[in-house]
Amino acid sequence: MYASREDIGYDFGDDSKVGNKPSKPNPNIDGGWAWMIVLSSFLVHILIMGAQMALGILNMEWLEEFNQSRGLTAWVSSLSMGITLIVGPFIGLFISMCGCRKTAIIGGMLNALGWILSAYASNVHYLFLTFGVTAGVGSGMVYLPAVVMVGQYFQKRRALAQGLSTTGTGFGAFLMTALLKYLCTEFGWRNAMFIQGAISLNLCVCGALMRPLSPSDIREKYVVRSNSEVNHAKALSHSAETIQSNGVLSEELETKQETTNKEVLDRVQQIETGGISRSGRNMYGLRILKTVSQLTLTVRKGFAMWYSSYFGAASLFTNRVFVAFIIWALFAYSSFVIPFIHLPEIVKQYNLSSQNNIFPLTSIIAIVHIFGKVILGIISDLPCISTWNVFLMANFTLVTCILTLPLMQKYISLAVVCALIGFSSGYFSLMPVVTEDLVGTKHLANAYGIIICANGISALLGPPFAGWIYDITHKYDFSFYISGLLYMVGIIFLLMQPCIQKKQPREKSMEEAQV
Hints:
It is built from 22 helices and 2 strands. The chain is mainly alpha-helical. It folds into 2 domains: 191 residues, MFS general substrate transporter like domains (Growth Hormone, Chain: A), CATH 1.20.1250.20; 195 residues, MFS general substrate transporter like domains (Growth Hormone, Chain: A, Up-down Bundle), CATH 1.20.1250.20.
């Protein structure tokens, strides 16, 4: 049997009364500035995820330059990919306190710094720190806000919007592969990384485009969703009671904290405007006190939301489907990353370099990946289609391709399998949609932070494991078989859970709301 979102999601309040009140929809939700958010997220995926998918070019340069084992060298790419995703929960804290825009701008500068410092690397271990950690943390600080902002601005076309924005990964993999190959050939890999660092400063511009929605705008989005779906995002019966009760308690606690801080702010404002004569030095001290109080209020509120999502009674881990989703994420991402990192070496082993140079297999994955995300997004937005079912079917196709890829030793057969890998991996655009269906928009940043953290662990361990297996067996076959079987285990965990089924709008309830 299938369970609807009523049985799976989270409900942090009773919106039935709010839903009965007429409200004017915000033009920026599902339109207007929302499409600028999609453009910003699209460029972020090109500059971050696309560049990471093209690291196979730099990986071969590092092998020749430093003459280290494949397993050790692969850790550079894995650290960059893994840390980008692993820092997700901590970036969720930054977003709660500073907002998406500031977090993304700081991350863009940090990412560019990591690329530039890596140009002066003297050994692989230096790259661990500069490229793996510095650039990786910067990438994470831009990537999560880019995904979260799209989820906040869209309600009816979420899957399509996420699909369009995440196609930047495919475009980026195609463009960055060609760009890095050209730069390495013409200027050497060190200058190539320096130039890429300068290009990465455009991430700051992308962050500046992430204009935050006001709280009233977000509430309007909830009203629209409550009118168009029946009891959307309800929790499992036991979890819902716990979550609702904790939500009330946390709101009361936040209200008390806000009241205390507002009293301080009001007192400062009275002193400033009450006609009391003060020296310039004292007034300067009062302004500092006001600024500190405002900052304290923001930090407390953000930390309270972040802490309750992970460790409170309303913890996201009380949702068993979400926990199964995390287990799946621990095994899934490495199966997609391993081909990108090691395909150039596999092609060289099969003596297919001449054909691969004409049209690289990684470029085939990247191009088809673009169409996969858009098509799967359009299909998932259809009212009669379950996003969960589309998500599972794409996963089955991908794991089948991973298990059969080592059996293909001709360019044409490898190209077909790579095309299927690219299309089926388009399910990445559905991950934020599925996550939002499970926990709601309010907790999307923290929840998706956990998911990409699990993906990061998978990306961190996958390529070095494949390189280690190669150093022992001198073949990549067992790497694909083992990662594919672990991926299948994650899919089985998802199959053991009820699926999310899209609900149809109820005409009567809409008429009742209008009355």
